[in-house]
Write the structure tokens for this entry.
Amino acid sequence: MAFELPSSRPPFGPRAPAPTDESGRVLLLVAALADRWGVCGREPGPAPGRTVWAELDLR
């Protein structure tokens, strides 16, 4: 199974959020659960940002 998640945030990898942060955990979850994943930057324009993609092997 494959999916993509568009985001308006700039491209970067997972980070360790502080315990009080209200965001910043989605990439950590994707990295923990997906068999393969990555982040692609989008071209500047009306909707700049990134696309997170992930693939899960169906077992």
Notes: DSSP finds one helix and three strands in the chain. The chain has one domain: 2-12+24-55.
